[in-house]
Inverse folding.
């Protein structure tokens, strides 16, 4: 994986952690361009988010998620210093992961 | 000399293997007990909403509920990027599925929540044309559904 594909912003208020993530990814469903070029399907199929060792969000995606996906969710009862991991995998076997400390 | 060394190495190897087995056992047991993740490939292969619901949840007669709020603009100029959020008035849900009723692949995604994760998700989806976003919520055996109409100016068949 070349440059980092994941950006995460977190905000913790009274133990409730809001996660906002942006992933750089084409999310291509295999369109045929006007010039006849057939694009290969290339989209994220799974995103797993963990807080320390607990899975807090596990998503199965299709090509219906917009290009450069945005994902936001909220987790309760999160202590400061917890480690948040976001990992994605796509249909071409590429993957990336980012760990941030809350 | 030679056979002795051999035997000693062999027995040491056996001991190491035994030790490794003991050490790994708890991990193996844990993995075996955890429910394996299965991507709903069959649901992603469906072309219409009802078969998608049957593939995901085993039924398509899911009752409508006002507990589910879909936040989406009524008019989307660009179908390639439609911000959507789903919020459920329940303490917890197991999963939320998002469907675009007239997309070539209606199932957009399925989001499964951990016990501490609120029944809320926000993302951006593609809508091929003017259609509806359907949010299906599952908590245990309970299934609920809500719909939101979106008028799309430029289709996002991307």
């Amino acid at each position: 994986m070349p440059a980092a594909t994941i950006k995460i912003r977190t905000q913790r208020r009274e133990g409730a952690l809001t996660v906002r993530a942006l992933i750089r990814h084409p999310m291509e469903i295999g369109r045929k361009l006007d010039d006849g070029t057939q694009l290969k399907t290339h989209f994220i199929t799974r995103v797993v988010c963990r807080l320390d060792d607990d899975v807090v969000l596990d998503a199965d995606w299709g090509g219906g998620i917009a290009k450069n996906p945005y994902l936001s969710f909220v987790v309760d009862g999160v202590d400061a210093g917890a480690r948040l991991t976001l990992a994605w995998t796509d249909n071409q076997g590429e993957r990336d992961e980012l760990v941030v400390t809350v | 000399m030679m056979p002795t060394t051999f035997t000693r190495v062999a027995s040491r190897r056996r001991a190491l293997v035994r030790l490794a087995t003991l050490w790994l056992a708890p991990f193996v047991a844990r993995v075996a007990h955890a429910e394996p993740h299965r991507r709903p490939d069959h649901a992603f292969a469906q072309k219409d909403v009802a078969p998608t619901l049957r593939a995901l949840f085993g039924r398509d007669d899911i009752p409508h509920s006002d507990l589910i709020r879909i936040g989406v603009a009524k008019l989307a100029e660009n179908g390639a990027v439609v911000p959507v959020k789903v919020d459920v008035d329940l303490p917890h849900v197991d999963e939320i599925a998002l469907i675009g009723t007239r997309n070539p692949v209606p199932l957009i995604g399925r989001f499964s929540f951990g016990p501490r994760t609120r029944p809320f998700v926000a993302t951006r989806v593609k809508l091929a044309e003017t259609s509806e976003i359907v949010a299906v919520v599952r908590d245990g055996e309970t299934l609920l559904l809500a719909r939101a109409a979106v008028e799309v100016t430029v289709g996002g068949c991307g």
Observations:
- Chain A touches chain B at residues 16, 27-29, 31, 45-46, 51, 54-67, 69-78 (CB under 8 Å).
- The mean pLDDT of chain A is 95.
- The domain at 6-101 of chain A is CATH 2.60.40.10 (Immunoglobulin-like).
- The radius of gyration of chain A is 15 Å.
